[in-house]
Amino acid sequence: MSTLPYQGRCAFASLHPAVTLGFFAGAIVLSMVLANPICQVMSVLLAAACYLTFRGREAWRFIASAPLFNTQGATVLLRWWGGRPYTLEALALGASTGLMLVAMMLWFASFHLVMTSDKFTYLFGRAIPALSLVLTMVLRLVPSYRRKADALMTARACIGKGPAEGASVAARVRDGGSVLLS
Q: pLDDT tens for residues 58-72?
């Protein structure tokens, strides 16, 4: 049994790995396939509830997101940046795509908390051992890489090479990019 912080809050994490994998696979596939806005809103709400169950108050920072927009459509709402149209259809499609993106992020974040590498190895270790090993290594690589990037950013800030307090978003993005490239 794992000693992760969410284990005591939800009995779902202690179920058999095949059950949790089936649930998340179904939730993710349905969230991608169903284009109905009501289904997408329900998917986002259920994914947020699932993630909040596992992470508690820490989850609120992750849940904030914005929809994506394009410029195609017939009903022009306004023009911006050199006459580029901003249409109602683009707004609706962007909101729909944004909802799907938010739902996917939340479902995968919850999946990452519940399906540990041990459970993944248990499920696929005998059937496809090479793929199971590769996937387990990838699942361990992402959190490890994030911890190393955080350590690098902290070290850069200590020697005065990080963004200053209250720096612009562009400066923070440039600093994060330089950390990822190093």
A: 666 555 434 334 556
